[in-house]
Amino acid sequence: xxxxxxxxxxxxxxxxxxxxxxxxxxxxxxxxxxxxxxxxxxxxxxxxxxxxxxxxxxxxxxxxxxxxxxxxxxxxxxxxxxxxxxxxxxxxxxxxxxxxxxxxxxxxxxxxxxxxxxxxxxxxxxxxxxxxxxxxxxxxxxxxxxxxxxxxxxxxxxxxxxxxxxxxxxxxxxxxxxxx
Length: 180
Description:
Layout: H1 5-25, H2 31-51, H3 61-82, H4 89-106, H5 119-139, H6 159-179
Helix pairs in contact: 1-2, 1-6, 2-4, 2-6, 3-4, 5-6
């Protein structure tokens, strides 16, 4: 990823921490939360790899192909899951954005890290993720206690933390798309 090294490392830290928390959420008692957390952990760790500053480390070209294949598979899984509800549509768009960024980073114009993408597609994805971040930010505003969530709920069963992770990944996606 192009840009200052310090902001790149901050993005790496945020994405890695989000991915790690999503792994913790996979221990939730709620099946749907576990499924969503798995996809979000994959997204967090994939974004971690992509966010490593190019000035520090440029991965071999096969890494971008591998990321494109992995997120292509995640996108197919989200497409299959979207048949049952719109909740997986965001995962489908996120996986598609990751495939797009991996392909753009593999482009020779970017010297293997931070290539150039299609402006129209980049702009469309930016609009989507900016809107997503704004909506996710509003959802974090304090509300009354969530019914069914016990006071002593474990880390994996805290909806406000899950929302905060989704917000941080959305912000990271905006930052990464700006660098494409």
